[in-house]
Write a structure and sequence with these properties.
The complex is a heterodimer of chains A (342) and B (284). Chain A is of the alpha/beta class and 342 residues long. Chain A contains 14 helices and 13 strands. Chain B has 284 residues and is an all-alpha fold. The model of chain B has no long low-confidence stretch (mean pLDDT 91). Classes of the chains: A alpha/beta (342), B mainly alpha (284).
Chain lengths: 342, 284
Amino acid sequence: MNKILIALSALLLISGCSSSEKSITGAGATFPLPFYNMIFNEYRDSSGINVNYGGIGSGGGIKSLNEKVVEFAGSDAYLSEEEMASMPEVVHIPSCMGAVVMAYNIPGCKALNLTGEIISGIYLGKITDWNDPAIAEVNPGMELPDLKITPVYRSDGSGTTFVFSDYLSKASKDWAEGPGTGKSLKWPAGIAAKGNPGVAGIIASTEGSVGYIGSEYSFALNIPAASIRNRAGEFVSPSTESISAAASGDVPDDLRFMITDPENAGAYPISCFTWLLIYKEQAYDGRPEEKARELVNLMKWVISEDVQSLTEKVHYAPLPAQVREKAMKALSEVTYNGQQIR
Amino acid sequence: MRDRIFKSLLFLSSLLILFISGGIFYSLFSGSVQAFDEFGIIGFITSGEWNPNPGNEQYGALPFIAGTIATSFVALILCIPFSLPVALFNGEYFRGKKIAGVLGTVVDLLAGIPSVVYGLWGFYVLRPIVSSLGLSEQGLGIFTASAVMAIMIIPYAASLSTEFISMVSNELKEGAYSLGATRMEVIKSVIFPACGSGIFASYVLALGRALGETMAVTMLIGNTDNIPTSLFDTGNTMASIIANQFGEASGLKLSSLIAIGLLLFIITALINLLGKMIIKKFTK
């Protein structure tokens, strides 16, 4: 009996000690997880502050922020007006950029051009064969086989699906009036698999399949991706340059905006941001000012040029200068008891 | 003194289990109230529409109930030709022999393999076979999921059936032998009538296990939200829709998923209760 008591009190002591270490907790989107893991490790080494980030999905992250379980949330979609109204004011800080790429498996086909209309037609079940005239028209000189198309989509709710469907809703009227935009949808055609690995796995082993995958996953594994026609009429393949090019338009002050289907030349049309969310007023739940300052410093560090230059190492794209400036400004407006945090 | 402490510890821990199951039921129930309010209990169970599109959200559990029942029963049927011979081999022909022990251990080992490993095997080995036979376009669907699940539930069905078969009293069997019955006839007219309900119960419990299987099924069923119309059609089960959609769900959708969880909880509990009741009646 005594031994157990001693063991228990020792355990308590150990856990008591470890919590005195400085730490910041966050949770949310899994899409930027490889990037966050890398930079938060670096942050611990350079500043001594431990950043714990749990990849539990954007929805879970927002829920945790709302319940004040975490200090920041990661999300692939900005908060809707409804969500904004349901919690104290939240600041959106973009942390890096990515894209959604179209992977395909057509025997003997090395490069493929697609348009938003065609992708929507495939996922609506209207274009069912690879030798469809609509596909032949944008792939001149290519011999496309008489093969059935199997569209593959994500079975789990996902920011990737959100970005993909947001693009299709802009590019195709039929899509906007049909399945629409969301993290999960009612799909008229195709089969589903869990996560990027699931979708990529089905495409790799099914002839005639096509599916959408997060760029961080496809770049890392060198999965060939189709070039998509942008608003400027060019067929653009996804790359860090063409993704960053998508964000060179107007940036709103609250940084809540989608960059799918942009008008700029050279832009890959299914590009996206991922955001870090923090409360604008940091004096809540009896938080000391010290913690608020540490959090804001972390955010500033993430959008700094040095850290942004690391994005490509893990297959994301850096934020354009204009977005970083706006994000810096948004961070300078974060307060503690109404006072600016210094 | 020590005795009393031990006794109260036991009492407390068993009470805790009761509280936990009660708590699970309560939180599932309170979480699903919103969905039942919106669609009605009957409406929720009988609606085949699953549309998460914001604005015209509509959730019904029928496709997933259908998928769960289809996969579980097909798996159960597919597992009988393997588990019953194993049970007879271990419980009658080679009862107590070394080889029976080896076979029993190997079959029990099947139960220890993580479900995701079965899923991977199904994905990379079974799926290409199904699609190259031309049974379905991409090889995913009810049949592929059921076939893998059948292997997973063999140990549950086989080990319990073995117990019941070996429990049949020797007097009965020897009586039959002395009348000139062959081994086949003894199995057919003595063992099966004597422990048939026990064997039945072990399959009921295996079914209960199949109902809740998640990971392997998710990887193999195709995850489409429709009511499957054939053995090789894709579909979705109650457990796999929850596993797939839970992470990003909120509001009415979350409540609908919890409601599906509640339905699954109740169905599995009823199936298990039925199995236990049959066994109790049989062993009396």
